[in-house]
Write a structure and sequence with these properties.
- The complex is a heterodimer of chains A (460) and B (438).
- By secondary structure, chain A is an alpha+beta fold.
- In chain A, strand 4 and strand 5 form a beta hairpin.
- The N and C termini of chain A lie far apart (54 Å).
- By secondary structure, chain B is an alpha+beta fold.
- In chain B, the strands form two sheets. Chain B has a six-stranded mixed β-sheet, with helices on both faces. In chain B, strands 7-11-8-10-9 form a five-stranded mixed β-sheet.
- In chain B, strand 1 and strand 2 form a beta hairpin.
- Chain B is globular, with a radius of gyration of 22 Å.
- In chain B, 58% of the residues are buried.
- Classes of the chains: A alpha+beta (460), B alpha+beta (438).
Chain lengths: 460, 438
């Protein structure tokens, strides 16, 4: 080992002992104000006076999964066009009004929810609330805006189809979810071309209803006054029954199989493996979160130490548990140089199997518990962090005291809990494998791991 | 509106290390950073990408904390960490429960004192960095566009004009001696600032800083670097092949005014009027109205830096992805019409007022967050560091807004006229290759 010249020239600190942690300071979650309005809208407010702003989201508990069978992506384009006009304002007025208020709005839809996200200066809070309420109740869906957004969507999709991580996720979700609506993460161009304007207001009228919605705001306001304003602003929102999202049985996946998406000219391979897991509400969630952080969720996890810090195969490997409303899944991904696709898969499975075979050590376990509970408390410090924590609790209908008790529920978890979670949810023998890259460079390696099906980057 | 009043205190240790503490007891967490006044602009010639490779080496082991110790000690304290290399600074930062404060300071001091790395570490991180370049640039649609494409066209002086992520041959050529040389030259207390934000008092913070950093030798004076750049005195055009993406694109770079000059304040308002979201003129005209473009963006140092975190020649950038049925010249002509209108007529009074409110609002948000929410007050740390290292005045974080809010419509027009000159700019066309994937 080469000795650093600086280390010779300068005297070292005589004490090489790592300072102990000081006693933990108590974490106090701020008080929440919760109310269900007469029309069914759930409202959650938290005061946070760190900056003279406020932030939040109006969620609608319907998303692309609700329309996967009829018009994939319809919830997304509906959300996109919602911001382009109301009965009272044109697209241009909306954008200029936002700038005048120093505010941002973002509308989007995922599988299970659609959302109008907002943030703005406290001094303009009532104007911004009014605009959010207008978007939720009186969107006008101008035809020219819709046509423009349709074209934007198509161009966006074409670029996504050249993006390795998108292609990997798209294929992976299809394999994992089969006939279930969660199989589809993006529409095809033909499906986008088939949208009819009237489908958007129809989705909107059906799903954007107060009983199907959740309003979360965090910021520099007085919660009682804000609640009163919200009550007034959203009182006119008419309730209606909302149909439940469709569902379908998941495919039974037995044994590994390999799905190779050919991206000509790729100079790197995107590797993604995983299996079915659980939702946020499942009693095993924390066990699994802990197991995941030790496997590949934290920087000092086993997988990252192995394939990044020891072997240098990749820059950004990670594992994660992805919870949707009806189902969840566990996945591991890394973008690696073409020569080490097989070596990477070998190490991914090796580390999974090690987690499944042997209990983790007590030190490693204690480190991981500290990590989870510490990182959780970082969410307290900012308005955005708090809003994210609240969304997690209320969208997933977790227990009222979830935030307050999180740390005490992490503390008693044992090596046995981690082993149970790993054996149940790191389903290495039945993992599905997706590799996106240049076929010539990687096919020989991919086929070592199971029967290979090849795809091109075009949609089905 | 109330003037900003972010509490902060600063001091300087005998070895030249500057220390800034901004207390906030909202939650028992803290964000810490050490910023070194060296970025990729000043990496050695023949060693493109070295400043960033070096940043990786800072996680590979220091005198008393071997490889993995930094990461393990911080994660196991409930914290997260990272580092990043910019034009003129490199940072190392952690967000932690505040009971880990002293531990993290010890770690940062240990690696400021001495880096202890070997050839194996260097080989390992060279491989990691190459995969980083592939995943972010070489294997991504529009990777590196335009932050890697514009400087070589716009600038003539190597520090400003080279490949900041690094040519692979240069990364391969880097040696352990280069690493230690770079460390000795730039990574000294007198060339750094330590920041502590959150659950820590100035007294506590200063005492801990003295205890752990006080006896690190100050290091040699910084070499004088010539980053001067002649004027962008012509129309400089370049072309780069887009291997994956399906849309033609172009980016335009104009020389930006020097920081904290009256033109710079005006240019920030001008930039916002042009590139600020969907109301910005470029997006509004090209995407929403004329529907020639699919996406637009821009800003000073866009998209890898911002108005505050540079200290040398830089560009005001526009980026346009447009529909393939328009050729490059047609799209550029439409863009130029937007720019010409501002140069001739300036912007509306009401428009400027809107821009100022939005600018103020975004500034405040960037202080609180600014890093995906996982690093509380990353933005505050970042700006305090830049104002300390570049301006020797961290309190600018509270007062800098005033300069922007005083800008007049006439200043905006005149700045546009002088800086957004179609004959004095760099343009890079990023054009999909014929054999594109789609």
């Amino acid at each position: 080992m080469a000795i650093a010249a600086t280390a010779d020239r300068f005297p070292a600190d005589p004490s090489a002992n790592v300072p102990e942690l000081a006693p933990e300071r108590p974490v106090v979650w701020p008080a929440r104000t919760y109310r269900k309005l007469a029309n069914g809208l759930e409202v959650v407010l938290v005061e946070s006076h760190t900056i003279p702003k406020f932030t939040g989201e109006l969620y609608v508990r319907s998303g692309n999964a609700n329309v996967a069978k009829t018009a994939p992506g319809l919830a997304e384009i509906t959300a996109t066009v919602v911001r382009t006009g109301t009965e009272a304002r044109t697209s241009r007025q909306i954008e200029e009004d936002l700038r005048r208020m120093g505010a941002d709005i973002g509308t989007s839809a995922g599988a299970d929810t659609s959302a109008i996200a907002f943030n703005g200066l406290t001094e303009f809070s009532s104007e911004l609330l009014k605009l959010v309420a207008e978007l939720a109740q009186q969107a006008s869906f101008p035809e020219e805006e819709f046509e423009r957004e349709r074209r934007q969507t198509i161009e966006g999709l074409r670029i996504e189809r050249t993006t390795p991580s998108f292609l990997a996720n798209e294929r992976f979700r299809r394999i994992l979810f089969g006939a279930h609506p969660y199989a589809i993460i993006a529409p095809t161009e033909a499906q986008v071309n088939a949208y009819r304007l009237e489908q958007l207001p129809e989705f909107y009228r059906t799903h954007y209803r107060p009983g199907n919605a959740l309003f979360i705001a965090v910021g520099d306001f007085s919660a009682p006054q804000m609640m009163e304003q919200i009550d007034r602003t959203f009182a006119s929102w008419k309730p209606a029954e909302v149909p439940a999202a469709p569902t379908a049985p998941l495919p039974e996946l037995r044994g590994r199989s390999v799905h190779l998406v050919h991206l000509p000219g790729a100079v790197q391979a995107q590797v993604l493996i995983g299996n079915h897991a659980i939702t946020r509400k499942h009693p095993d969630w924390l066990r699994l979160a802990l197991a995941n952080s030790m496997y590949g969720g934290a920087f000092n996890s086993r997988l990252i130490m192995n394939i990044r810090e020891q072997k240098g195969y990749t820059y950004s490997p990670r594992s994660g548990v992805h919870a949707l409303r009806q189902h969840g899944y566990f996945s591991v991904h890394a973008a690696v140089r073409n020569e080490v696709v097989a070596a990477t898969l070998t190490e991914m499975f090796y580390e999974l199997d090690r987690m499944r075979s042997l209990p983790v050590g007590e030190d490693e376990l204690a480190d991981a518990r500290n990590y989870l509970s510490g990182v959780f408390s970082l969410g307290l410090a900012t308005q955005d962090g708090l809003a994210g924590q609240l969304s997690n609790v209320y969208l997933n209908q977790l227990p009222e005291d979830y935030l307050e008790t999180f740390r005490q529920r992490i503390r008693p978890l044992t090596a046995g809990d981690v082993l149970i979670a790993a054996r149940k949810y790191f389903d290495s023998p039945n993992d599905q494998i997706v590799v996106v890259g240049d076929r010539e460079q990687i096919a020989d390696q991919a086929k070592l791991f199971g029967p290979v099906t090849e795809y091109d980057a075009k949609p089905e | 509106m109330k003037p900003l009043h972010i509490p902060l205190e600063s001091t300087k240790l005998e070895n030249g290390l500057r220390v800034v503490v901004s207390p906030d007891r909202t939650a028992p967490v803290a964000t810490l950073g050490v910023y070194y006044n060296i970025g990729f602009r000043l990496e050695p010639r023949g060693r493109s990408g070295f400043a960033h490779l070096f940043e990786h080496m800072m996680f590979q082991g220091s005198e008393h904390a071997g490889k993995m110790m930094h990461i393990k000690l911080i994660n196991s304290s409930g914290g997260v960490l990272n580092g990043s290399t910019h034009y003129d600074v490199t940072n190392y930062y952690e967000s932690i429960p505040s009971n880990a404060l002293e531990r993290v300071l010890w770690l940062e001091a240990d690696r400021m004192r001495a880096l202890k790395v070997d050839d194996e570490n260097l080989r390992n991180q060279r491989d990691v960095v190459k995969e980083e370049v592939r995943v972010n640039v070489l294997n991504q649609p529009y990777g590196g566009f335009p932050w890697l494409d514009l400087p070589p066209v716009a600038f003539r002086n190597w520090p400003n004009a080279h490949n900041f992520y690094g040519d692979f041959a240069d990364l391969d050529a880097a040696t352990l001696e280069d690493v230690q040389q770079f460390f000795r030259t730039y990574y000294s207390p007198s060339n750094a600032v330590l920041l502590m934000i959150g659950d820590v008092t100035p007294e506590e913070g200063f005492a801990l800083a003295r205890r752990h950093f006080g006896n690190i030798p100050p290091g040699p004076p910084q070499p004088v670097a010539d980053v001067r750049e002649g004027p962008l005195d012509g129309l400089r055009r370049g072309e780069v092949e887009e291997k994956f993406g399906t849309l033609p694109a172009f980016a335009v770079g104009y020389r930006a005014p020097e920081r904290k000059t009256p033109d710079w304040y005006a240019a920030a308002m001008l930039d916002h009027a042009l590139h600020g979201g969907r109301a910005g003129r470029v997006y509004h005209q090209l995407v929403l109205e004329k529907q020639i473009a699919v996406d637009t963006g821009g800003g000073i140092q866009y998209p890898v830096g911002d108005l505050f975190d540079y200290n040398g020649p830089t560009l005001l950038v526009s980026r346009v992805l447009h529909k393939p049925e328009y050729n490059s010249e047609q799209a550029l002509t439409a863009y130029d019409a937007v720019i010409d209108a501002v140069r001739q007529h300036g912007i509306e009074r009401d428009e400027l007022e809107q821009v100022k409110v939005k600018f103020r609002s975004e500034y405040v948000s960037s202080l609180e967050g600014g890093h995906g929410g996982s690093i509380p007050r990353y933005g505050l740390m970042h700006y305090l560091a830049c104002f300390t290292l570049f301006d020797n005045d961290p309190s600018l974080v509270n007062s800098i807004l005033d300069g922007f809010l005083q800008v007049t419509t006439e200043q905006v027009r005149s700045t546009a006229e002088r800086y957004l000159d179609s004959q004095r700019r760099a343009i890079v066309f990023r054009l999909p290759s014929k054999k594109g994937a789609a």
